[in-house]
Specification:
Elements lengths: L2 H14 L10 E7 L4 E5 L12 H11 L5 E8 L9 H9 L4 E5 L5 E5 H4 L9
Parallel strand pairs: 3-4
Antiparallel strand pairs: 1-2, 1-3, 4-5
């Protein structure tokens, strides 16, 4: 199994752990590092909707808290029939940590691969 297949499978497993009692919309993400390590995340909802966190950010924050910053790709899967793309906040977090490739997967196993710059062409960057 190649690295892309591995992160897709891990994202699918993470989706199963989602806490989505309000939307019933489960999302899983898996983040690949340069050495082949994988960090996963699932969406975690809250009765106070602003306190929820998307699967993509959960995966990034887990990796960052482990000292990782050498990312190569992220896979995102959901319960939707079509592709589920990262929200704007998640895209900005991906830009902050320079995740170069995002792979979205639909329920039929079809994949689409995007460069981060295509999903967020004018990301906010630190001012120097």
């Amino acid at each position: 199994m190649d690295k892309i297949e591995r992160i897709i499978r891990e994202a699918e497993k993470a989706r199963e752990r989602a806490y989505a009692p309000y939307s019933k919309f489960r999302v899983g993400a898996a983040l690949l590092t340069q050495d082949g390590s994988i960090y996963t995340g699932c969406n975690v909802e809250n009765a106070s909707f602003g306190a929820a966190c998307c699967a993509e950010r959960v995966a990034v924050f887990k990796a960052i808290s482990d000292g990782r910053r050498d990312f190569t790709a992220m896979a995102v899967v959901s319960d939707s029939q079509g592709f589920t793309f990262p929200c704007g906040i998640c895209r900005q977090v991906m830009a902050e940590f320079k995740i170069p490739v995002i792979i979205v997967v639909d329920q039929n196993g079809r994949t689409a691969e995007y460069k981060l710059n295509d999903l967020l062409p004018h990301a906010f960057d630190k001012i120097e």
